[in-house]
Amino acid sequence: MAALLDGDAQGAGAPLAAAAELAGELAGEVAGEVAGEVAGEVDLPVLAAVAHLRAAVLAGDDPAGAARLLGAATALRGTADLSGFDNLLRPAERARELLGAAAFEAAYGDGAALPRDAAVLTVRSVVGVDGSAVG
Q: Could you tell me which residues come within 8 angstroms of residue 135 by beta carbon, excluding any fewer than 6 positions away?
């Protein structure tokens, strides 16, 4: 948060980077809470949103995992839609920048190719069915 307030000392992009980091942290908290709410039932659009939020948290440290999770969200929705949270969190954009286009597409494709039941298990294993993040 200090970087957000002290953007001049760290360059022009620092405030936006700090805001994205804070948004990612909040996304992780929301994803954990929502995962806890849907632990007993599978609401595919909600679980896809949870996957997208968790991908935002993972994008900086594990861009391949984030890309695969975004692909799993596509498998849950049945259609590609990276627009959900990308205006602020931009997990696909960040993961693609870190991985390169080809590696991003490969990891995303792996997740998108999952059968729906495997996509559910993938998202639950990353987020945790009790609402806590795993790993």
A: 126
